[in-house]
Amino acid sequence: MKQDSLINLAIDILNDKPETHISKFEKLMDILLSLFTDRIENKKIQFDRERFYYINLLTQKFIVHGFSVKKLIDGITLDSPSKNLKIEMLDPFSIYSLVRTVIENYLVQNYLSNSNMDDDMLQLRFEIWMRYGLLQRNIEPESDEEKRISELDKKSIENLENSIKTRKGYLELSEIKKASLHKTINKKWKIIFDKEKFYPVSWKRLMKEAGIKDETNDQIYNFLSWHAHSQSISILQLKNMWDKDFAKKNVLTSVKKLNMFTGFIISDIIKSDKEFRNSYENLSNEYKDLINFYNMTFRGTEYMIEQLKN
User: How many helices (H) and strands (E) does the chain have?
Assistant: First the structure.
């Protein structure tokens, strides 16, 4: 990425025009989808580990939510045939909720693929995460098919538990800590291991681990949480929505955040998967610059795919 390209991008985005941020969002989603399309066209769809397969699925889930936001940006229609009524409006609240889901989706993906972690630790994280999900599914079998799935889940949980016990992070724990871990992972999966200790962590801690700068980190999660739940602040926001331009401004805020995290997930999958790296090389310089700009600005130069050039 050339320095003059960075400067031009920064000037363009700092002008803060809604159409600019929406245009960047559309381009970032195009990049993400094109990386997957390119992989499918080249028949690079096999994964040598289950963890990589689920990281791929998490990224696909990110894409689906992103395109749902893209649809909502155009607004919704409140339609009552019996009253011959059609009201067109923006729906920032659904967008907020989807962006929160996208952020969580990204943080899980990064938690399982963080290039700063060794492979054994990433496998341990994956096994705890997968075990937790299977436990939560908790199928009460009624049909023969449900019984079959339930038995498969039990076997998978047993295999995961056996594998967890072989991991370095687990083996470094004292016997007391191992017993405590078994109880903890029945209720939580976001676990950080630190030598002879482990501790559950928050989403905000995962943002820090993903490399997101503190000043950006502090602005994100609580704001989005307010609108995903029926706390009083979200209802106050609904009251204010009827003020002039309130909905437009809040949709724009969501798009800005989504742009950051789309840039992050693109960088992460390219760094962790050589097949995506090959597809990255086929992108236009404009698209490459866009990815690198968001990562450099909101995380740091070490998260860029390619470094700055004169």
Answer: 14, 4
